[in-house]
Design brief:
Blueprint: H1 4-12, E1 15-19, H2 25-34, E2 38-40, H3 48-54, E3 57-61, H4 67-82, E4 87-90, H5 98-110, E5 114-118, H6 119-125, H7 143-154, E6 157-161, E7 165-168, E8 173-176, H8 189-200, H9 207-224, H10 230-243
Helix pairs in contact: 2-8, 2-10, 3-4, 6-7, 8-9
Bound molecules: adenosine-5'-triphosphate (ATP), 2-(4-methyl-thiazol-5-yl)-ethanol and magnesium ion (MG).
Adenosine-5'-triphosphate is lined by residues 92, 118, 135, 137, 161-163, 165, 179-181, 183-184, 187-191, 193, 218-219, 222.
């Protein structure tokens, strides 16, 4: 992991527009802010064009989508694709309803930079029967293969998260082994990772390297934040992100 990128994000302070779910919006905004990014979470589609023009990167999270938010997503996608802004899709529980399936299909038709999902969401988007249980992943076989297949099928980068995270561009797939078993117990760590990776995609390096760096960094912060008590994890995570710089992280994760 190139630790100087931690400083670079804080210097750049990328403006990340997140179409978010109402369950984890505040938690995601605080993670972005602690990491040195500027969150913006609009809800009215009338202002989508202007706000997307301001953004360095966009995240579309369908966790609590309704018809108003579908209109917002449409408008954000139109401007983001027109202006070639990085777009991250978090396909929360995509296989759980017809509405989610068709919405995600229409988003993918317009094109995204990265899909970040758990093993079941990525399995579904790779065209494989998944074992999803609502927002949670079921037991999927061969996640590295699923990540690669999904990237090939959807023509974008993929991060399949879980006990091990897999980053794939369809040809190369790398593993990130950090993290903590507390992370799947905190609702929204996946939402946080998706939005955080949007900000990383504004770094002036290749998109694959940016996503790999962001996934490794997020996992390492998550591991350091585990001090044995679930209730402390979120506060520790914010503190570590806020205090991180290339000097304090020197030599980590090489
Ligand atoms: N068992 C685990 N051990 C270590 N890290 C984990 C584990 N499970 C998940 N993580 C980490 O938690 C983060 C979120 O991944 P996860 O797959 O749980 O997302 P998700 O299912 O979309 O979560 P949510 O829907 O609650 O936002 C990632 O950084 C991942 O590395
Ligand atoms: C609990 C929950 N329900 C829909 S989205 C969400 C948060 C995790 O994405
Ligand atoms: Mg999720």
């Amino acid at each position: 992991m190139k630790t100087n990128l931690i400083d670079q994000i804080k210097a750049q302070r990328p403006l990340v527009l997140v179409v978010t779910n109402f369950i984890t919006a505040g938690a995601v905004a605080n993670v972005l802010s602690a990491a040195g990014m500027s969150p913006m979470m609009p809800s009215d589609f009338h202002e989508a064009t202007e706000l997307t023009q301001l953004a360095d990167a966009v995240t579309i999270n369908i966790g609590s989508v309704d018809s108003d938010q579908a209109a917002l997503i449409d408008a954000v996608m139109a401007t983001a694709t027109q202006l070639s802004k990085p777009i991250v899709l978090d396909p929360v529980a995509v296989s759980a309803s017809q509405a989610r399936q068709s919405l995600v299909q229409s988003i993918l038709k317009k094109g995204v930079t990265l899909i970040r999902g758990n093993a079941s969401e990525i399995a579904y988007l790779a065209g494989i029967q998944s074992q999803a249980r609502g927002i949670d992943a079921g037991d999927e076989n061969n996640p590295a293969y699923l990540a690669q297949l999904c990237a090939q099928k959807q023509h974008c980068l993929v991060v399949l998260s879980g006990p091990i995270d897999y980053v794939s561009d369809g040809k190369t797939t790398v593993e990130c082994t950090m993290g903590s078993p507390m992370m799947p117990k905190i609702v929204g760590t996946g939402d946080m990772l998706s939005a955080f990776l949007s900000g990383c995609l504004s770094l002036p390096i290749s998109q694959f390297e940016a996503v790999k760096f962001g996934t490794e960094y997020f996992g390492q912060v998550g591991q350091r934040a585990d001090t044995g008590k679930l209730g402390d994890w979120s506060a520790n995570f914010l503190t570590i992100l806020d205090q991180a710089n290339s000097k304090s992280w020197k030599g980590v994760g090489k």
